[in-house]
Amino acid sequence: MKAIKIPHHKDPEIAISYAFFAILLLLPLFGGRWISNAGLYLMLYSIMGYSWNIFSGLTNIVSFGHAVYFGLGAYATFITVRDLGLVFPFSAILSTALASAMCGAIAYIVSYPFLGLRGLSFAICTLAFAEFMAILFTNTQLVERGREVAFIPAQTDLLTNYYMLFVLLFLIWTVFWKSRNSKLGLALIAIGENEDAASSLGIDVFSFIRKAYVISAICMGIAGACLPYIVLSATVETLFGVERSLMPLVICIIGGRGSILGPLLGAIIMHFLAEYLRATFTYLHWVFLGAIVIAVHIFEPLGIVGYLRRMFGGTR
Amino acid sequence: MAYEALLTSLLYGFIEGSLYALLGVGLALALGVMKIVNLAHGAFAVLGAYLLISLSASLHLPLFITFLLSMALVGVIGLGAYIIVVDKVVVHELSTLVTTYGLELIIANLILSIYGGATLTYSLGLGTLSIGGVVVGFDRLLVTSIALASILSLHLFLKKTYLGRAMRAVADDIEAAGLMGINPKKIYAMSYAICALLGCLFGLSFVTTHYVNPMISGLLNLKAFVVTVLSGGNLVLALIAGITLGLCETTITSFVLPTAYQNIVPFTILLIALTILKRKRRL
Description:
The complex is a heterodimer. By secondary structure, chain A is mainly alpha-helical.
């Protein structure tokens, strides 16, 4: 495993990310509705990417089941908007808070049985947990309430959604790179490189990875809580399905796992590829994404960011 | 009546379970020899099922020849997948996980885009047998005997033939096996192809008795993984684990939970087995 560079304040990745944020901030002013919509999904995917990156990207303990937290977050929005009937500013605040609380609590509980596992066992275990929750939610009808599709009334317009997601993405991005440069992030990278060595240096492995797992779950829950405000409808399959678990993984692997810029780049590729291919060939976009993931793994394991670093001679 | 219902669910559990064992030994072989979890295993099963359906519809050959033809095609595809993709990443355990998942995405979604998401089956039309009030189709008995026979022949292959012994040697210690004149790369390619063949054999047996669609490949992977985790790679234990899984599924859905919860059984077994058995131990 190649070493991941610890960035300081002059890190080009952070500078490029700021440039991206400036573009995203001004995008709705110059672009039309289509551009704003594209930016909206791009930011949603980026939040999912950063949430996955904070745990799996840094520690190399790959989670295949983050859809659980995405679905729980979306369910929190259905509770606040549909069941409690709150109006916009309060509903958004309460649904993100509720999503964070639910996801944090579930992640904290399952961390005891799950985080004793590593590698393949952990990946399969999270995959099974996501499917387990999907079956549970399908049969209890908590989301759909006996209908085909669950709906919430529209509370926000496109621009409100856009800037809500912008603020959340900026917060989560800041959380990611600040914690990556903190003691937590250094410990996580050390655990990812060599767990036994990290443990022998006095790092409390379990408590650090549990902290990262809980933070990661909360971020994913916030991403999930945003989805119903954008699309206004959901089914269990779109919330807990394997595609949801796979998206952040694909985004981070394409962009560069463990890096600060990676999820933004990965989300751009994921969004445009997925949208264009979905429009042209219905199911083939996952074929291409699968092929891209394989190609990235074979030729450039650290993704686009790894490639850029090698081309422009980053200090490594 | 309750007695007959119990007998029926036990018999069907045994039949399902022997199929799951057949699915699981393929995954266990790849895990034992190459130390990878082949997440494309379910996709090979689905591929075999769809090849059988489309080949028999287009070529009108005898069933047995169509069977062999689909198995040969899946074997070649598995070998190709190994040479093009898996061989490049086989040393990194997590990379293989992600790349084989990529393979599964490619295969399952190609099938989905060609055939659509409709559920299909391939009925052999063999009629049914009634033993003491328990009704069972001859096709189910046939696929059970195929599954048991393939596990037995895999066992004999691994114990008696040169190639099988070479595989076990590579599984034990790859460096020592290399020093004894075994080419590990060839053994890896061979065991991946055999893994694909076993998956295909499961798919062929499954499609004659059940309805399949391309989206079940992920579920099949997890069921195979249950068998693998419970058995630890031992073939006899894999048979027992598969049958246990089948019996748990049928008895729980007949007597405890509604049928909609059928698939929750393997996940619960998997979660319990992984978190208790594999804790603090690298798989």
